[in-house]
Amino acid sequence: MDKCIIEANLEKNSFFKRHFVGAYSSIFPPTTVAATTSIDNGLSPCEHGWLGCDCYFPQIERNVTVFLNTDTETKERVAEESVAWKYYGYSSVINRINSAGGKAYIVEKE
Question: What DSSP line would sit under 70-98, residue for residue?
Fold first, then answer.
């Protein structure tokens, strides 16, 4: 929930205002792919290379819808493996914590 929405719409003593710890900013460019990937690996989009929903991959000379691994225009699958992972793979924050001896988990709906 956006900080501006909380400030504009909630009572001073509301639960969210009483428990507000701080705000954080998104990344640029503000796309789902860039933001999700930045949260997963702790890097900015210019560091991890996952810049938007659709990206041009010169290695295969195609525009690819990153999360779907499909050609942007034809909608056909471009490869069996994820093109983004193949050319711009990264180590997630979870993996780096576990590699350093910590215990971190990700919980997601199947």
Answer: EETTT--B--SS-HHHHHH----HHHHHH
Of 16, 14, 63, 55, nearest to 33 (Cα)?
Answer: 55
First to last CA, the chain: 25
> What are the structure tokens assigned to 33, written together?
């792919």
HSE on the CB side for 52, CA within 13 Å? 8
Q: What is the pTM of this model?
A: 0.66
SS3 per residue for 7-71: HHHCCCCCHHHHCCCCCCCCCCCCCHHHHHHHHHHCCCHHHHCCCCCEEEECCCCEEEECCCCEE
Contacts of 69 (CB under 8 A, 6+ apart): 77, 78, 79, 82, 83, 84
Rounded alpha-carbon distances, angstroms, from residue 29 to 54, 61, 64, 93? 12, 23, 17, 20
Q: What is the pLDDT of residues 44-83, one digit of tens each?
A: 988 999 999 999 999 999 999 999 999 999 999 999 999 9
